[in-house]
């Protein structure tokens, strides 16, 4: 490739949409949803309130919250076939790909979303609700357990955590699950998976096609998959005392530290600070989760020293895995849980994209291949 100066690699700095959903202020490290700081929202709200906030632009009163909660309960139901398909997928592949397949498969037989646009909000809420249910279903199958669905009274966070770790999880851990769902619910239109959701929406695709494509985009280690990579790195490092030597080898080999760096943040990711508050509240000294958190802190110290001058700081994935670990979620499920949370952002962006007129995304290429070649029959090649 010639490195043509017209091309902006990674579309860096190119605006792709107007959006009123969330604001990432990269230079000062601030994140807000519809004007409310992420710190206040995680501390005070339920995930169901956040769904109302993202869709409505304002925090709900009690009756609106009741309405959203009822819809989440009604719409989360899965048919026996959908459960069976998710369970089979959960035995075949990484849960992130099982989730992608299961979400794609809950779409109906028709392919005409435009005729159903009056229900764009309900279709989105249904996907948010069902995705959490599917993550729990896949977790039970991957763990060779029978399917046990949600109880009527379970919040979204309670349903997910109980299905993954069992009914005896504590209220404190359910509260942590709720905070993690809120924290990762949206992050502007420009991140790769949300941009994907808008590109697929622009082809006028069904909501399930939008959702499953976005899950695929989130899975990679440069995006949502980094939370899994980070915790596996801490496990490999093994102890705080090993961190210095281990990272030094990584720096020499020019390897990337998972959980570090961000296209937009050039300060510490504000979500990391929230996760650290949670980690300090719940992780018990002497446990493996606490040890992994201590290693994460050491990695933060060493890598910040080395990388911050280049604008690289801890992102959400440096510490999120330590908290998932602390509430007993299996490592393979950290990224699917990120997806269950971000499904809310993707679905609200899908609506915003339609509301904006939904012009097809169609950038252009700069062709650098061969031209005008003479065709040769196979016998002459
Ligand atoms: C998130 C990420 C993809 C952003 O990448 P980007 O904006 O495209 O930045 P680039 O890939 O162009 O990297 C710029 C430079 O910083 C370095 N860099 C970026 N992230 C780094 C990391 N985590 N550790 C070490 N060096 C890193 C790159 O090697 C590159 O160095 P060079 O200029 O010497 O080649 C990148 O920081 C990364 O891969 N981080 C680790 C994965 C991760 O945590 N992802 C979750 C994001 S929320």
Account of the 3D structure:
This protein has helices at 38-44, 47-56, 62-75, 80-92, 95-105, 120-142, 156-165, 171-183, 192-202, 207-218, 226-237, 243-252, 270-282, 288-307, 316-326, 334-355, and strands at 22-25, 30-33, 36-37. The chain has 381 residues and is an all-alpha fold. A three-stranded antiparallel sheet has the order 1-2-3. Helix 4 packs antiparallel against helix 5. The longest helix has 23 residues, at 120-142. It is globular and about 70 Å long. The mean pLDDT is 96. Coenzyme A binds at residues 10, 222-223, 226, 256-263, 307, 310, 312, 315-317. Coenzyme A binds next to helix 15.
Summarize the structure.
The chain is mainly alpha-helical.
Q: How are strands sequenced across the largest beta sheet?
A: 1-2-3
SSE order: EEEHHHHHHHHHHHHHHHH
- Could you tell me the CATH topology label of the largest domain: Citrate Synthase, domain 1
**N- to C-terminal distance:** 26 Å
Features:
381 residues, mainly alpha, Citrate Synthase, domain 1, Cytochrome p450-Terp, domain 2, three-stranded antiparallel beta sheet, 3 strands, 56% helix, binds coenzyme A
List the helices and strands and how they pair.
Blueprint: E1 22-25, E2 30-33, E3 36-37, H1 38-44, H2 47-56, H3 62-75, H4 80-92, H5 95-105, H6 120-142, H7 156-165, H8 171-183, H9 192-202, H10 207-218, H11 226-237, H12 243-252, H13 270-282, H14 288-307, H15 316-326, H16 334-355
Helix pairs in contact: 1-8, 2-3, 3-6, 4-5, 4-6, 5-6, 5-10, 6-7, 6-16, 7-8, 8-13, 8-15, 8-16, 9-10, 9-16, 10-16, 11-14, 11-15, 13-15, 14-15
The chain binds coenzyme A.
Coenzyme A binds next to helix 15.
């Amino acid at each position: 490739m010639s490195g043509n100066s017209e091309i902006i690699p990674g579309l860096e700095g190119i605006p792709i949409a107007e959006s009123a959903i969330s604001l990432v202020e990269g230079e000062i490290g601030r994140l807000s949803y519809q004007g409310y700081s992420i710190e206040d929202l995680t501390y005070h709200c339920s995930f169901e309130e956040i769904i109302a906030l993202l869709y409505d632009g304002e925090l709900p009163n009690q009756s609106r919250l009741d309405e959203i909660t009822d819809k989440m309960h009604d719409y989360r139901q899965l048919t026996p076939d959908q459960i069976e398909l998710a369970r089979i997928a959960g035995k075949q592949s990484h849960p992130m790909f099982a989730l992608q397949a299961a979400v794609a498969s809950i779409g109906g037989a028709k392919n005409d979303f435009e005729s159903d646009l009056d229900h764009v909000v309900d279709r989105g809420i249904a996907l948010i609700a069902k995705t959490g249910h599917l993550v729990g279903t896949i977790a039970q199958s991957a763990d060779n357990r029978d399917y046990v669905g949600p109880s009527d009274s379970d919040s979204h966070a309670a349903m997910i955590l109980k299905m993954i770790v069992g009914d005896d999880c504590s209220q404190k851990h359910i509260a942590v699950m709720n905070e993690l769902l809120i924290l990762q619910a949206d992050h502007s239109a420009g991140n790769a998976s949300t941009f994907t959701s808008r590109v697929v929406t622009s082809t006028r695709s069904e909501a399930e096609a939008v959702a499953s494509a976005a899950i695929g985009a989130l899975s990679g280690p440069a995006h949502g998959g980094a939370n899994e990579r980070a915790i596996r790195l801490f496990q490999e490092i093994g102890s705080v005392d090993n961190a210095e030597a281990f990272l030094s080898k990584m720096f020499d080999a020019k390897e990337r530290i998972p959980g570090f760096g961000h296209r937009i943040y050039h300060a510490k990711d504000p979500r990391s600070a929230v996760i650290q508050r949670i980690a300090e509240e719940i992780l018990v000294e002497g446990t493996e989760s606490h040890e992994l958190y201590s290693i994460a802190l050491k990695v933060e110290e060493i890598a910040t020293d080395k990388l911050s001058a280049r604008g690289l700081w801890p992102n959400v994935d440096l510490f999120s895995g330590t908290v998932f670990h602390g509430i007993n979620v299996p490592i393979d499920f950290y990224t699917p849980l990120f997806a269950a949370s971000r499904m809310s952002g993707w679905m609200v962006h899908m609506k915003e994209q339609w509301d904006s007129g939904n012009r097809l995304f169609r950038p252009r290429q700069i062709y650098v291949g061969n031209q005008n070649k003479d065709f040769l029959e196979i016998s002459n090649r």
